[in-house]
């Protein structure tokens, strides 16, 4: 089964385990681990070379710990955050089931590879899921003062030694952090790190900092594996029978939240 044929299923979170079981067998394109890990390749300027196609673990629930990932089991909800979490019902129309953009966190969580395109002035994340892209600006600029919220937000990056640190703000509160529906507000501040540990592996962390939804920051850690293949075309609507046939509801933007 090709990856894009699972699009509607994966987007809505319905029957995801069956779909992922098929995908998992086809993702390990690099074979077994080498007897001795090759060293980290570097660009002419000395920075680690993050270029390439990478596959992380599927993370539908960022609180769980499993193969190649470690979550935060007990999330420190604020009263408002807990209310958002307890009221979430994907059956009433999850935005991904209508093929809307997943948002940065949920796109990285998806069971599909991403490609990193690295230059001296930017790092671009190319997602196989719906063929979305997200630029990380590396030219030393700050976030805009008056930032209009968007699906993926605004990202700037810098190097901390051999670790790429990406700072993201301005994400719509329409999105969720993961498939199971952990919420965030438009005050969300995501800090993600990418560190290549050898030729075939990269460690990734994401820290969620949103004091409107959580009383303190929390983190999820993962290991990504290099793939030898290429990204393929992905069309969410092509096989979205659940939406076309009315099994899931069409998503509409929620009313603006009142000031808390």
| CATH architecture name | Beta Barrel
For the largest beta-sheet, the strand count, sense and barrel status come to: 9 strands, mixed, barrel
Q: Tally the helices: what do you get?
A: 5
CATH superfamily: Calycin beta-barrel core domain
Strand content bin: 15-25%
CATH class: Mainly Beta
Number of folding domains?
A: 1
List how many beta strands DSSP finds.
10
SSE string, helix = H, strand = E?
A: HHEEHHEEEEEEEEH
Principal-axes geometry comes out as globular
Mean pLDDT: 87
Structural class: alpha+beta
**Span from first to last CA?**
46 Å
CATH fold group: Lipocalin
Low-confidence stretches: 4-31
Global Rg: 18 Å
| Helical proportion, percent range | 10-25%
Strand order of the largest sheet: 1-3-4-5-6-7-8-9-10
Written account of the structure:
By secondary structure, the chain is an alpha+beta fold. It has a single domain (3-32, 47-244), classed as Calycin beta-barrel core domain (Lipocalin, Beta Barrel). The chain has five helices and ten strands, in the order ααββααββββββββα. Strands 1-3-4-5-6-7-8-9-10 form a nine-stranded mixed beta barrel. Strand 4 (122-127) and strand 5 (133-137) form a beta hairpin. Mean pLDDT is 87; it is low at 4-31.
């Amino acid at each position: 089964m090709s990856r894009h044929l699972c699009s509607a299923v994966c987007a809505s979170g319905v029957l995801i385990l069956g779909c992922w079981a098929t995908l998992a067998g086809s993702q390990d394109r690099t074979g077994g681990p080498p007897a001795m890990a090759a060293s980290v390749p570097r660009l002419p300027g000395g920075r680690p070379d993050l270029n390439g196609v990478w596959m992380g673990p599927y993370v539908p629930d960022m609180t769980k710990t499993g193969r190649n990932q470690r979550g935060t089991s007990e999330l420190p909800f604020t009263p408002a955050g807990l209310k958002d979490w307890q009221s979430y019902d994907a059956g009433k129309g999850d935005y991904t089931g209508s093929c809307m953009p997943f948002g940065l966190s949920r796109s990285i969580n998806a069971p599909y590879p991403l490609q990193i395109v690295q230059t001296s002035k930017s790092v671009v994340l190319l997602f196989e899921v719906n063929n979305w892209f997200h630029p990380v600006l590396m030219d030393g600029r700050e976030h805009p003062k008056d930032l209009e919220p968007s699906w993926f937000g605004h990202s700037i990056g810098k190097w901390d030694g051999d670790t790429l640190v990406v700072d993201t703000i301005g994400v719509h509160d329409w999105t969720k952090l993961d498939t199971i529906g952990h919420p965030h507000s438009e005050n969300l501040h995501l800090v993600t790190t990418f560190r290549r540990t050898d030729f075939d592996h990269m460690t990734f962390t994401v820290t969620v900092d949103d004091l409107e939804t959580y009383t303190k920051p929390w983190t999820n850690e993962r290991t990504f594996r290099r793939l030898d293949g290429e990204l393929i075309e992905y069309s969410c609507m092509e096989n979205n029978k659940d939406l076309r046939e009315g099994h899931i509801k069409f998503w509409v933007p929620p009313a603006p939240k009142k000031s808390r």
